[in-house]
C-alpha cells in the first residue's frame, strides 16, 4: 500500500524537527500573513507555591558576599595590564555600567570618584554625539546607552548635549523601523531596545518613528512566543528581554502573547535551578568575590552585575 504523508505547513515541519514537551501548546502559530489565534487557557500554579519556590531558592543561595563583590569590582577597574583588561578594553564603557550599577545595588556607590568617572565618559564621546567603549575607539549605540545610564546613575545628565546625543541615536534608525548599532549597519533587536531606552531616558522618543520601531520588533516574534535578533531568528532570553522592554517603554505590551511567552521562559529553568538563554544550553547562573555564569566557571563583571541584580529583585 502506498503511503501518502500529510501535507505540513512550514511551521509544522520546523516544529517536527525537535521533540516537544507534552505541555507544548497544541495550536501552531505562524507570523506574517497568518493571524495569531488567541492564546489557550492555561492555569498558572498558585501564587503561594511560586513564592515558596523563590524563598527556598534564596535560602539555598545563601547570603550575598557583598564586600567581596565590591573588592572584586574595584580590582577589575584597577587591573589595566592584565590579558583580561586588554581584550575587554574596547567595551570598557559597558563594564563601567555593569560595575557601577552593581555597586549601587549593594549601596556602595560612594567607594568610587564620580567626578573622575564622568570626566572619562565625556572623553569617550565623538563629534557625532555617540560614545565609544573607551577613549580612542569608535562610537556605537551599545556604549552610548551605557554612558547615558551611568550619567543618570550619578544624576549628571545635565553634562550632556542631549540634542546631539539623541540625534546620533535617531540617525541609526532604518526605513523598516529597525536600528543599526553603528555606521557599519549591523541590525539587531538589542539595538532597538537600546535606542528606545536611551531616548526615553533623555525624553526624546519623539525623534524616532516609534510606530515603525514597534512594528519591526513585532516582526521578530516567533511561533514559540519569543523574539529573535531579526525576523526569523531563534528565540533567546536576551533578545526577549530587549523586545519586551522596548514594547513596555513604548506602551505596546499588548502585542506580547503573555501565556505563550511565559511558558517558553519557564522552560528555560534546568534541573540545577539555573536558567539558560535558549533550549539545550547550560544554565547561567567566593573566595575572591565576583559571580560567574555557572558554578565553577571564572567570574566576570558582566555576570556579577546580573547575579547581584537578580538576587536584589528576587529579595
TrEMBL record:
CDD domains (alphabetical): GGTase-II
EC top class named in words: transferase
Alphabetical list of SUPFAM superfamilies matching this protein: Terpenoid cyclases/Protein prenyltransferases
UniProt keyword Zinc present: yes
Reaction catalyzed: geranylgeranyl diphosphate + L-cysteinyl-[protein] = S-geranylgeranyl-L-cysteinyl-[protein] + diphosphate
All copies of domain Prenyltransferase alpha-alpha toroid, residue ranges: 64-284, 286-310
Cofactor annotation remark: Binds 1 zinc ion per subunit.
GO-annotated molecular function: metal ion binding; Rab geranylgeranyltransferase activity
Record keywords, A-Z: Metal-binding, Prenyltransferase, Repeat, Transferase, Zinc
Signal peptide: none
GO cellular component: Rab-protein geranylgeranyltransferase complex
Family recorded in the similarity comment: Belongs to the protein prenyltransferase subunit beta family.
Cited function: Catalyzes the transfer of a geranylgeranyl moiety from geranylgeranyl diphosphate to both cysteines of proteins with the C-terminal sequence -XXCC, -XCXC and -CCXX.
Protein name in UniProt: Geranylgeranyl transferase type-2 subunit beta
Organism, as annotated: Linum tenue
